[in-house]
Each structure stands twice: as C-alpha cells, then as structure tokens.
Amino acid sequence: MDFRSRLDVEQLLAELGIVARRRGRKLYARCPNPEHQDNDPSWAIIDAPGDRRHAGHHCFVCKLGGGPWELVQAVRGVSEEQAMNQMTDLSRRHFLI
User: Fold this and answer.
1) Torsion 35-41-42-44 (CA) sign
2) Taking a C-beta distance cutoff of 8 angstroms, is the pair 39, 60 a contact?
3) What is the rounded distance in angstroms from the CA atom of residue 10 to the CA atom of residue 67?
4) Which terminus of the chain, N or C, has less C-beta within 10 A?
5) What backbone torsions phi and psi does residue 40 show, to the nearest 5 degrees?
6) Under a CB-based contact definition with an 8 Å cutoff, are residues 44 and 60 in contact?
7) Are 3 and 91 in contact (CB under 8 A)?
8) pLDDT tens sequence across 70-88
9) How does the average pLDDT of the chain come out, rounded?
C-alpha cells in the first residue's frame, strides 16, 4: 500500500506547524511561499478522505501547488527526495510500517 494513502493531511499539516481551518473537503491556511506575503488564508489544502493519493494544495494568489511531497518541499524548503524521505519517516512514526 502506498504510504500517501495512509497519511492524514491534517496530521501532515500539524507536523509542519501549519494552522489550517476546515471548510468542507478543503483546509485553508496562509501560503508558505516566502515570496508571497499572505495576510488572509489563500492557500487551499485538499483532503480526499478514503483516497489520500488525491490530496494536494494550491495557492490562489501565487499559484504554488502540487501533491503531498510538494507541500513538504514548499514548507520546509527541501528537495523532492528529502521531502519524500521526510514523509516516509512521518508515515512510519504514525503507522509503524
């Protein structure tokens, strides 16, 4: 089973230190892009319960977006490989795989 399908989006956000508010299927937060000063939550994090592979994120102002590891890349400023390793570690801690 793909670790992304077992990772809860809200757990990932908490791990990254992001405070988000839920409105339906989406969570909204301030954009993590340092080049974009976000005063109002313009960053949508899409949660797909039952199918976490379709979770993703998108900023309506600067257009930052992608899947779960791109979210880690954006927030932590790491490479794709580092982001995938960090998500795998997070998944192991939460699900003991």
Assistant:
1) positive
2) no
3) 14
4) N
5) -115, 150
6) yes
7) yes
8) 888 888 889 989 988 888 8
9) 79
User: Which token pair is 62?
Assistant: 């600067």
pLDDT in tens, the chain (97 residues): 455 555 677 878 888 888 999 888 789 999 888 787 888 889 998 876 555 555 688 899 998 888 877 888 888 889 989 988 888 887 777 654 4
Which residue is it, tokens 């994090």? 45
For residues 30 and 62, the answer to whether their CB atoms sit within 8 Å is: no
Short-list 4, 15, 43, CA closest to 27? 43
- Per-residue tokens: 82: 């580092």
Contact 7, 53 (CB under 8 A): no
Structure tokens at 51: 């199918």
